[in-house]
Write a structure and sequence with these properties.
single chain; 6-stranded antiparallel sheet; 183 residues
Length: 183
């Protein structure tokens, strides 16, 4: 496993697994505390794991947390997703920059998203399981959602959207969220 810095989002990393493939399938390490430590992150800071299953075209996001924010490790353990990250940390040199990734079960690459960044993804396969490891317990009172189709962000979602939560459908624009946050 190796860590690769994401230039478009300061402090973001891709952790590339090294699948060992043979006639049985494959095996790979999806988390390595030493590799995480090597880029200055505390592997013990991650306190909660979650999993979502989505069908093709489902869009989840854009989500972030208020207060201290939430750093997360995201991996598509089955299927394939289009993943979007927006840096909303006012003091970051990549403030308001976006980065897009394709995460899949073939590579088992994990994306580290720093606290203060918005995150969303769309399922590209009939079934896509997405694993999350977050650095503090989830508190729904701190959930913030930004419109997936905000023209300022112009995220190029690759498929027609087949389904999304009501909260995501009714999310405010980036400008409204930033006004509310005082950014």
């Amino acid at each position: 496993m190796k860590a690769i810095e994401v230039p478009a989002i300061t402090g973001a990393y891709l952790f590339e697994a090294t699948p060992y493939v043979d006639e049985r399938g494959f095996f790979c390490r999806t988390f390595d505390a030493e590799v995480v430590r090597s880029v200055g992150l505390d592997p013990d800071a991650f306190v909660q794991d979650s999993l979502s299953r989505s069908v093709r075209g489902v869009l989840r996001g854009l989500h972030l947390r208020s207060g201290a924010g939430e750093a997360k490790l995201v991996r598509c353990s089955y299927g394939k997703i289009f993943d979007a990250v927006v840096d909303l940390r006012p003091d970051s040199p990549t403030y308001r920059d976006r980065a897009f990734f394709e995460l899949s079960d073939e590579t088992q690459t994990t994306l580290y998203i720093p606290a203060g960044c918005a995150h969303g993804f769309q399922a590209l396969t009939e079934t896509a399981d997405t694993s999350y490891r977050i650095d503090r317990p989830h508190d729904p009172a701190e959930d913030v959602t930004i419109a997936f189709d905000d023209p300022e962000l112009a995220i190029p979602w690759p498929l027609p959207i087949t389904s999304m939560s009501q909260r995501d459908r009714e999310a405010p624009s980036l400008a409204e969220v930033l006004k509310h946050r005082g950014s």
